[in-house]
Amino acid sequence: MDTSITFASLGLAEPLLRAVHDAGYTHPTPIQAQAIPRVMEGGDLLAAAQTGTGKTAGFTLPILHYLIKNPAASRQAGRPRVLVLTPTRELTAQVEESVRLYSQHTQIRSMVMFGGVNINPQIAALKKPLDILVATPGRLLDHAQQKTLDLSGVEILVLDEADRMLDMGFIHDIRRVLRLLPAKRQNLLFSATFSDEIRSLAQGILRNPGEVSVARRNTTSELVSQQVVMTEQSHKRDLLSHIIRESGWHQVLVFTRTKHGANRLAEKLVKDGLTAAAIHGNKSQAARTKALSGFKDGKVAVLVATDIAARGLDIDQLPQVVNFELPNVPEDYVHRIGRTGRAGSTGSALSLVDSSEIKLLRAIERLTKQTIAPITVEGWNPGAMVTADSAPDAREKRALARLEGDLRGGRQDAGAGRSGSRDGRRRPSSEPRQSQDNRRGDGRRSDARAPGNRPARSGSAAPTARRDARPQGGRPAALLHKAD
Ligand code: AMP
Q1: Cα–ligand 1 centroid distance for 98 (angstroms)
Q2: Which protein residue has the closest C-alpha to ligand 1 atom 8?
Q3: Percentage with pLDDT > 70 across the chain
């Protein structure tokens, strides 16, 4: 962060400087330092910035500045001057919350609008004067159709998380909204990535845009430590409970691939005595809001979410993210772990990976140009935790040994019958299969330190025994070890 730039030196109006001061911000973040002057000049903007970079203030502050300096002759009900389009209900609510925060010392009025809730209170709210509307595209079009909303006065359009809007299939809705807007307007497009699709959308909307970028495409924050534990799929739930309990994590966001998986995992964690809730698109808005506020207040320690539901969740200083399953799309990994290590604080991202996911792991490593260290978990002994009928057997032991070899050997075809070696060299076919020979042949685990399968030390604490000694920061240092 360049400390010579201050919010005052950017020329923002006094009520905004006061709000920023109230929020405790001392200096603009890099995206703010770049975007604010550009937006204040009045030009279009194409900005590459992930959630967590301070992008919301990056567009909200100069927009508020513009509205303060150019007050409308008369404000009209249901006719906003600024339209912010976002992909999800959560992000919409959070952006509007930020607008309210930064406009608290002004007369500027904002409103939030999304689907899945009763439309009538929104219709009533639209009968009052309005400056800034933050909306998801679908409900916005409903209002426009019912003529409860007039978009002909929009002077500034913001497309926030445009990449996600395209992912979610909003392109036609966006085009429909664009047709309702006046041709002369300022356009700001924010996206975590600049795919070809985003570039072509931008070309159709933006005129001679300035480009700002704060993180290289698909890079991960240096403030986030990334780790992998290799484990069987059937052990993941017990392993996760174990790690959360033993590490004393009090605020952890866990990603699953499916809504159903999110529900099942949250239920299981609750059975294990943890406070957990699931958040995904099938839940009512009330249930999602309740889960999120419980998580933010510290009443819920574990929030289990799908990618789309978690998108845009604004949780300050989230210390811990877990990938219960790796995402199918490597870019989603970058988005997921961007939930932690925000605004200068450090975070940690742990992925539970089974043999079927090694290809995904390699794709993530190629994308982020980093290798992610495999670790072992102290005191984790799945053999002692699973029921008799799912107890580890020789086949499972072999699978774990193979996983370890694959992981160390940088292989991508786990389970294909070949094996890497512990030191990372590909073993000649004549060399004895040492790691697999660690099998004891009795169907129980040997001391081979397959990742995620470190044998329990004798006298190792039962999962609940160390509850009082938990570090509140939730750092896993004592529990998770490098696998070599
Ligand atoms: P965003 O990327 O807009 O979701 O912002 C991420 C987080 O950074 C939010 O919790 C903001 O409150 C916080 N934030 C925004 N700007 C600053 C700043 N200049 N200094 C410190 N924190 C900030």
Answers
A1: 9
A2: 54
A3: 72
